[in-house]
Write a structure and sequence with these properties.
alpha/beta; 2,3-Dihydroxybiphenyl 1,2-Dioxygenase, domain 1; 2 domains; four-stranded mixed β-sheet; globular
């Protein structure tokens, strides 16, 4: 088996409209498709990110995230940016709090973290 790319990352939102606005208007991800599944009372929003997708879901009363970034399991989602200073300024101008920019000891590349509406840790990496 040879894995060649990430097809998608799935995120379950506690407030679908708030998360939809965050990912489309604040992060600027284009919508591929939006589907309402009546039998599940659930939306699925496909968003384009490079050659991959983010699937944003809504479900009635989803449980809260039980772990923080240092617990076992998925740690965070990271986005590549060409200019981290500009990206952070843009996020902060939209009311998104970013951690101070740090330098990765192994790659010497700069990065920072911020949170989505459900407190999911997101990273920007230059």
């Amino acid at each position: 088996m040879k894995l060649t790319n990430i097809h998608h990352v799935a995120i379950i939102a506690s407030d679908y409209e708030k998360s939809k606005k965050f990912y489309t208007e604040i992060l600027g991800l284009p919508i591929i498709n939006e589907t309402y599944r009546e039998e599940r009372d659930s939306y699925m929003l496909d968003l384009q990110i490079g050659d991959s997708q983010i699937e944003l879901f809504s479900f009635p009363k989803p449980p809260e995230r039980l772990t923080n970034p240092e617990a076992a399991g998925l740690r965070h989602l990271c986005f590549f940016v060409e200019d981290i200073d500009t990206a952070v300024q843009e996020l902060e101008s939209k009311g998104i709090i970013c951690e101070p920019i740090r330098v990765d000891e192994l790659t010497n590349k700069r990065f920072t973290f911020f949170r989505d509406p459900d407190n999911l840790p997101l990273e920007l990496h230059e």
